[in-house]
């Protein structure tokens, strides 16, 4: 009898549907499945991929593992700055931790004028989320100082830019907590900048999410991953800027650009272009490259054979054995 050899293209983890003993809730996000156990939770990083707030039709092999493992390393490397939600990472696709009440804002911080900020600037706007930007900047220029440009955290649809003043006026976050979120965001960005510089990278922009557990602020979600951050290669950055050339970057931007080139930006009536096996494989290879460059480590592919059973076992064995 032939042994089963898993084909990652066919067996990528698109979703999970477990029902664990002691489970008190479930939430399916764009790319992660969250299982609640009273004051603890287990997050399964699936291989789903989203862009323009739309989950694309095909899963990307190893993407969940890449994000989960990068996030784990970076959460551990920043624990001295702010406590975080993680208590264990027992599986390449699983993280277990304490359940926090999330703040309804995402703390976006930008060191360079790229992506959404550049598109707004190019359109003529000089104030972004209440922060005034100087005249005469070009795409991908370094900003005088890193700026915080928060967004609302939408349960459905698109997140929207919001200013500190609006957050406080609407009572989304109280002033004492919000000032602490800003302090943590700046410190985390400085640490992230320092860590990736060792790998020859520039941390261009990123986002952090925070929540409260037993009255204390915790860092939650993933950090410094290619889905939540944008990186430039530092070698040649200055020369490319001087010549007005595009920067060589590491992020999910290549997926967005492929979609834009094929007529999709998440707008009503637009169709996601066909994701052929070749497209899926190329995206998977880029994510693995991202992991190896960002971490400086070789990527060890998880085995997709019995992956769903493996994940279930890791949750069951660890959810009640971890301590806060």
Give a brief description.
The chain has 324 residues and is an alpha+beta fold. The chain is 32% helix and 24% strand.
Number of strands: 17
- Helix-strand topology string: HEEEEEHEEEEHEEEEHHEEEHEHHH
Q: Categorize the overall geometry.
A: globular
What structural class do the secondary elements suggest?
alpha+beta
Sheet of most strands: 8 strands, antiparallel
The share of residues in extended strands comes to 15-25%
Q: Please estimate the helix content.
A: 25-40%
Radius of gyration: 20 Å
Q: Low-confidence parts, pLDDT < 50 over ≥5 residues?
A: none
First-to-last CA distance? 47 Å
- Arithmetic mean of pLDDT: 92
How large is the count of helical segments?
9
Report on the architecture of this protein.
There is one protein chain. With 324 residues, this protein is of the alpha+beta class. 32% of the residues lie in helices and 24% in strands. The chain contains 9 helices and 17 strands. The chain has helices at residues 8-11, 63-77, 115-122, 164-169, 175-197, 237-243, 253-261, 277-295, 307-318; strands at 25-28, 32-37, 40-45, 50-51, 54-55, 86-91, 94-98, 101-102, 105-112, 127-128, 131-132, 142-148, 151-152, 201-213, 216-220, 229-233, 249-250. The strands form 4 sheets. Strands 8, 9, 12, 13, 14, 15, 16 and 17 form an 8-stranded antiparallel β-sheet that branches. A 5-stranded antiparallel β-sheet has the order 1-2-3-7-6. It has a two-stranded antiparallel ribbon with strand order 4-5. Helix 2 (63-77) packs parallel to helix 8. It is globular. The mean pLDDT is 92.
